[in-house]
Amino acid sequence: MNTFINKINENLRQNKLIYLIITAVFIVGVVLGVYSILYMSQASKNDVMSYFNSFVSSVSDKQINYKDLIIESMKNNLIFFIGILLLGFIIVGAPFVLIIVLVKGFLIGFSFSLLVNILGNRGVGLALIALVPQNIVIVPFIIICSSLAVQFSMAKLKSKFTKSVVSNEAILSYVNFYLFSAIFLVAGIFLETYIVPNLMKIIIKKFYV
């Protein structure tokens, strides 16, 4: 684990600009997600509010279905994980990696803004509980993996101009480094499946029922 952290630190020092660009793109996505709620129709907001009220009224009686939750969490997060990994192998993959990062930021910003907009001040606490725990782990993971994918994609592009070949060692290093970083993804999925739903249940029972 220490070796992995040291490699991340070294990679960060050598590729500060790429990390800064990806972080900036993520922040832009969050901001766009937050402000997009302003263009949501009142009918759509009412539908969401109706769904939320139904959820609140039944949450105290429902058992949490962890099986469905972990399948949903894995499906949602693996889309980003596999997409970014594969784009790193494509010469023109870097711009598409940035689009994925932008989308991830947008989804987080939109979800937070939606709860706050519909529930007012009461929605802030629920939004923080629903989004922060897993994303404290998943967002750094997305930024690190996206940076690695962009670096590898750019290396492949450079090799086309220099008529060189990306070595098998470099490919193996990229894949191993990427897969090892998936420990953060596993931790995020665990939080999203087993911790967040129970925290939300406690908060909803205490303040919303």
Automatic annotation (TrEMBL):
Q: Among its keywords, does the record have Membrane?
A: yes
Could you tell me which InterPro entries the record lists for this protein? SpoIIM (IPR014196), SpoIIM-like (IPR002798)
Kindly indicate where the leader peptide sits in this chain: none
One Pfam entry name: SpoIIM
The alphabetized UniProt keywords are:
Membrane, Transmembrane, Transmembrane helix
Bilayer-crossing residues are 17-40, 78-103, 123-150, 171-191
Provide the protein name: Stage II sporulation protein M
The root-end lineage is:
Bacteria, Bacillati, Bacillota, Clostridia, Eubacteriales
Underlying gene: spoIIM
